[in-house]
Write a structure and sequence with these properties.
10 strands, 2 domains, Rossmann fold, 11 helices, binds D-glutamic acid, alpha/beta
């Protein structure tokens, strides 16, 4: 048994979509969420920068005495996870491997991946998918505007509808009907993307597979929490307008959140 919290990080609000799944799957666990809003967006930064930010975030979470780390960010998973695993002894789970393991269980010949420019350029999703499922066809599309629009709280704006309409064209052309939301900001657009395909698309939210993997890990190692749960703590590295409102929307939470602004 281990009463310490699970540490989670992303560049901003996106990883809260993963926190939501983690909280639902493990209602007994404690969580500390770090949104690195000071360095948002990660999607257009260099690999060296992503490695540096990820390292700082993990060091911060380790100082908070967490028992494990979840990288709730596709960009940091694709470019920094392997380096972080070498640097730190603490268990670290990213979003790609658990999701690919889930995809392997589906009868699919073709899949779409949408993510940030950095993630798509890294080729990490395609490589990982093809390693597990050699004959799968992967259609990739970078959606550089989506994380920023969501972070600004404008996910339902005309700007976002237009961007999604344009980004989804390639999947319609290729008759792709299953899409991995390879950036953790994208589940915020779930409904809009569904509408774009008139409901005829399956969207894979990475948080679901990640939460399952974390749960299994805690069980295997016998390190589940055994004491009464505390409210999740949210820390952001730079104050952001209406962060609490956006966070409540994503977490579908009506009560006041525990948000600290600087670390
Ligand atoms: N939510 C992040 C991801 O999954 C980062 C988006 C960004 O900061 O550009 O890739």
């Amino acid at each position: 048994m281990d009463t310490r919290a699970i540490g989670i990080f992303d560049s901003g609000i996106g990883g809260l979509t993963v926190l939501k799944e983690l909280e639902e799957c493990m209602p007994e666990e404690n969580f500390i969420y770090l949104g690195d809003t000071l360095h948002f967006p990660y999607g257009d930064k260099t690999r060296e920068e992503i490695i540096q930010f990820s390292r700082n975030n993990i060091e911060y979470l380790i100082r908070q005495n967490v028992k494990m780390i979840v990288i709730a960010c596709g960009t940091a998973t694709s470019q920094a996870l392997t380096v972080m695993e070498e640097l730190f002894d603490i268990p670290i789970i990213g979003i790609i491997e658990p999701t690919v393991n889930y995809v392997e269980s589906l009868p699919l010949k073709k899949i779409g991946v949408i993510a940030t420019t950095g993630t798509i350029k890294s080729g990490a999703w395609e490589k990982s998918l093809k390693q597990k499922i050699p004959d799968i066809k992967v259609v990739n599309k970078a959606c550089p505007l989506l994380a920023s629009i969501a972070e600004e709280g404008k996910a339902k704006s005309k700007e976002s509808l237009d961007a999604i309409h344009q980004y989804m064209e390639i999947f319609k052309e290729n008759k792709v009907n299953t899409l991995i939301l390879g950036c953790t900001h994208y589940p915020i657009y779930d409904e809009i993307i569904q509408n774009e395909f008139s409901g005829r698309v399956t969207l894979i939210n990475t948080g679901v597979a990640v939460a399952q993997k974390v749960k299994e890990y805690l069980q295997q190692k016998h390190i589940q929490n055994s004491e009464p749960k505390k409210q999740s703590k949210i820390v952001i590295s730079k104050e952001e307008k209406d962060f609490d409102k956006k966070a409540k929307n994503i977490l579908k939470c009506a009560k006041k959140l525990d948000i600290t602004y600087f670390y």
